[in-house]
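Hey,

The postdoc asked me to send both predictions to you directly instead of through the lab channel. I've kept everything plain text so nothing gets mangled by the mail client. Protein one:
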Amino acid sequence: MPSPDTSILVVDDAKFSTTVITRTLKSGGYSNIHHVGSARDALKFQENSPASIIIADWLMPEMDGLEMTRHIRQNDEVTNRYTYIIMLTAKDGVEALRHAFEEGIDDFVNKSFMQQQLLPRVFAAERLVDNQNRLLRSNQQLLDANRALQAFNTVDTQTGLGNHNYTLQQLKATLNHSDSRGDATCLILLRIKDWDRLIKQHPAHIVDELLTGASRRLRNLVRPLDNIAHIDNATFAIITHQPDISLCTAASYRRIYDGINLRAFKTSIGYLSLTANMALASAHRDFGIPDVNSLLNLGHKELEKAVSSGTISEGFYRQM
C-alpha cells in the first residue's frame, strides 16, 4: 500500500498539468504533495525540505528538467540521500530517452498517457526510493560505527603493537605519573630509513616480515614496563620513565639503536639489514610538564635533527 506521507514534488509551469497530476496522485492515496512552477524553485525546495519523489516537466523556461536533475544529483551526493525523478515528456525516440537516463532521470511518463501511467510509476518509485535511502542510511551508520571503533582502537594490526591512539594514551598517563611522582618521561622515536625504497624493492610479504622482525626485536630491547607502538609505516614510539632526567640520554637507550642498526633480520629471502634514525624527547616536573602534543612535536623535531646528523638526537622540554 502507498504511504500517504511520501513527499512528492510536482514541478510544472502549466496549471492544467499540475491539476491533473495532483488529482491522479490523490486518487492513489497520496496527500503530501507540493507544487512549484520552475526548476529553480524546485532546487530551493529540495534544499529546505527535500521530497522523496519529483515529477517534473522536461521542457521548462530558464532551466529544463535535465539541468535540474544534474543539480539534484549533486545535492544528493552531499546530503547522502536519493531522490527519485520522474520526467514528463512528449518526446519520442530512443536517443532522447538514452540521453536523459545518462543525466540521472529514473523514469519517464509520456504526457499523452499520463493518467494511465503515472500512478503505477509512482507506486514503484516509492518502493525503490525507500529501499535506496534505507541502504544509504545503513551504510552511513556502518561508516560512523567504523570511525568510532577506529577512534577507540589502540592496536596496530600490522605489528600487534600499540598504534597512534595507544601512544597518545600512554604518553599522557606517563606524563601524569611524572608530574605526581617527580619521575622523568622519555619519548623515543625510531624511524626506519629509506622505507619507500624498501617497499619498491621488495614484495609486500618481505616488507611485512621486516616490520614484524623489527617489532619483535624492539619488544626484546625495551624494559617490561616500557610502552611500544607503531605509529606509522616507518616510525616506532617507545614511552618510558626514568627516576631522574639525567638518565634520559642517548647512552641510556643506545642498545635500542644498535639493536636495529647492527643486527640483520631473517626473512624468507635471506638476511636483510635495516637502518634507523632515533631521537629522544624528555620531560621532568622541574622544567614543566608538557601536554602530549607538545612532547610529540619535540620528538619529531629531534627526529629530523637525527636524520640530518646521522646521530641520536636528544631534546629536553623546558616550559617557556
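Protein two:
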Amino acid sequence: MVDDAVQRIREICMALPGAEEKPFGGHTAPSFRVRDKLFVMISEDLSEMTLKALPGAQKVLVGSNPARFFVPRYVGHKGWIGIRLDAATDWDEVAGLIAESHAMTAPKRNARRG
C-alpha cells in the first residue's frame, strides 16, 4: 500500500508542468519541486506527505478532519498542510491539493499551462 501511495503521488506530481523529483536535503523519501522550489514532500516512513496550501486551507482541513490532516513541523507555520496516507486516502482530493501547491510554487506562466 505504501509503494502504491508513493507511486500515485509521483504520477500526480510529474504530470504537472516543470515538476521534477529530487530528494530534500539528506532525506531519501521523494519530494517534488518546480524550478527547484518544493511543493510536495513525503515523509521518510512514506506514511505522510506535506504540501503548500492556500491561505486559510490549513485551518479548515485540519479542523474538519484531524485524523487525515495535520499541521506539519517546520513548515506548518507557513500554512503547509500534512496528509496521512492510508487505504482511505481520497486521491481526487489529494490531486487537487497537489495541483494547488504546484500552482502556488510554479512561475505563473508554468502554472497557467497545467
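Summary for protein two, as requested: DSSP finds four helices and six strands in the chain.

Thanks,
C.
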